[in-house]
Amino acid sequence: MAEFSDLSISLEQLGFIIIKAREFDAKEGVTEPDPGSNPTDDGQGAVLEDHGDDPVRAELVGFIHAMNEDERADLVALAWLGRGDGELADWDELRSQALQEHNKRTASYLLGIPLLADYLEEGLAQFDETIEDVEAEHL
Fold it and tell me: Which pTM does this prediction carry?
C-alpha cells in the first residue's frame, strides 16, 4: 500500500499549489476585455477575472515547471486519485501512467482541470494527510 512518504512531492509544495489553485479556480471568465477605466472606479472587479496575464496563473505555472519530473508525476497522479480515477491501491499504476504521459504541458493540463484544489485535497485525504498546517502558516 502506498504511503505519503513514498511521494516525491512535499506537503509544503502541495499546500502552495492547493492554495494558489483555489485562488485561480475563483476566477471568472473575462467580461470586459479592455475596460479602459480605472480599477479603483470599477471596485477592483477585474482581479476576479481570468486574464491571460493573471499573476496567480503565472506563479502556479512557474512553480510547476520548476518541479522535477517525479514531483510533477505525483501531482498529476494525486489529482487523478482525488478525482476518482483510481483508488489508493492503484497508486503505482496512476503514477506510472502520469510518468508515461509526461510532457512539457503539465501545468496547463492541471490548470485546465476544474476543481483542481479539491481533487488534490481529496487525493491527500486518501493518504490520511491534509495541508491544514501549511495553510495555518501561510494564511
Answer: 0.79
| Domain presence at residue 3 | no
What is the domain count for the chain? 1
pLDDT of residue 28: 55
b/e string for 58-94 if b means 16 or more Cβ within 10 A? eebbeebeebeeebbbbbbbbbbbbbeebeeebbeeb
Average pLDDT taken over every residue of the chain:
85
For residue 79, give the amino acid letter: A
* CA 26 and chain centroid, separation: 13
* Calpha distance 130→126 (Å, rounded): 10
Examine residue 72 and state whether it is found in any structural domain, yes or no.
Answer: yes
Cell of 111: 490548470
